[in-house]
Task: inverse folding
């Protein structure tokens, strides 16, 4: 019984979004892993079974891979493999061509002992620190790119200049290069309202207004021409009627004169 319980071997990859850190733990005790069995992806559970230092921690299951490398897929309610016809936009598949579909093997979203890697995210922190995971902060390599998100990060008002708060990244110095010539790389700010943007917006609106006025003028001109054509057609029709009635009256007169003779 002791040997059977020790036979399970699974890696648990735990991420802590608050510090940006993640760490992989290798667990070979089935008693510690048994708490996660029959749990589904996106389900939250306590992590007390992993050890005393995990007391009070709550984690969310985000996925995993089985021993042959097949990934877990959300929505497949089984703990075995299934062959699904996947297309662009679905998880566990990357389309190489437009409109491509492919039948692939995926693992169900229920955790069992056949997994080799289980991915977890810490939702609630416990009492103790976990070495290498919660006790250190991993700095973000890249800062926000959108103007509204930079304002939110630094709690700026609309009057503040966002360009002064862009997070820059120092480029590594080349061999023999002076430290004074340190170069930085910064993202291009998206959705930034500048005088040029406002000018282009005014230009677009003026073009739209001009198009609207032109369409209105052309519509009125077309209505005038159409009314004129209808009037002319009506007059031609009346003229044809008058001429035909005159021809009929002349024919009657000629017939009556022939009869008298």
Result:
């Amino acid at each position: 019984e002791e040997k059977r319980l020790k036979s399970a071997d699974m890696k648990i990859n735990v991420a802590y979004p608050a510090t940006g850190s993640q760490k992989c733990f290798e667990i070979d005790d089935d008693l510690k892993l048994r708490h996660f069995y029959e749990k589904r992806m996106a389900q939250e559970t306590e992590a007390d079974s992993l050890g005393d230092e995990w007391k009070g921690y709550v984690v969310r299951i985000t996925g995993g891979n089985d021993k042959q490398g097949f990934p877990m897929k959300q929505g497949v309610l089984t703990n075995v493999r299934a062959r699904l016809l996947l297309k662009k936009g679905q998880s566990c598949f990357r389309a190489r061509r437009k409109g491509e579909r492919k039948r692939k093997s995926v693992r169900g979203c229920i955790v069992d002992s056949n997994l080799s890697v289980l991915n977890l995210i810490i939702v609630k922190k416990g009492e103790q620190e976990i070495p290498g995971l919660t006790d250190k902060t991993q700095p973000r390599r890249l800062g926000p790119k959108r103007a509204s998100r930079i304002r939110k990060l630094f709690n700026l008002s609309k009057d503040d200049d966002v360009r002064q708060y862009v997070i820059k990244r120092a480029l590594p110095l080349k061999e023999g290069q002076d430290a004074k010539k340190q170069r930085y790389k910064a993202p291009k700010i998206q959705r930034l309202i500048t005088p040029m943007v406002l000018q282009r917006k005014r230009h677009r609106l003026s073009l739209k207004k001009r198009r609207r006025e032109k369409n209105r003028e052309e519509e009125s001109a077309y209505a005038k021409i159409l009314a004129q054509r209808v009037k002319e057609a009506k007059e031609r029709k009346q003229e044809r009627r008058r001429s035909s009635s005159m021809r009929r009256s002349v024919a009657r007169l000629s017939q009556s004169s022939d009869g008298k003779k």
Notes: Residues 195-260 form the longest helix (66 residues). Residues 29 and 245 are 113 Å apart (CA to CA).
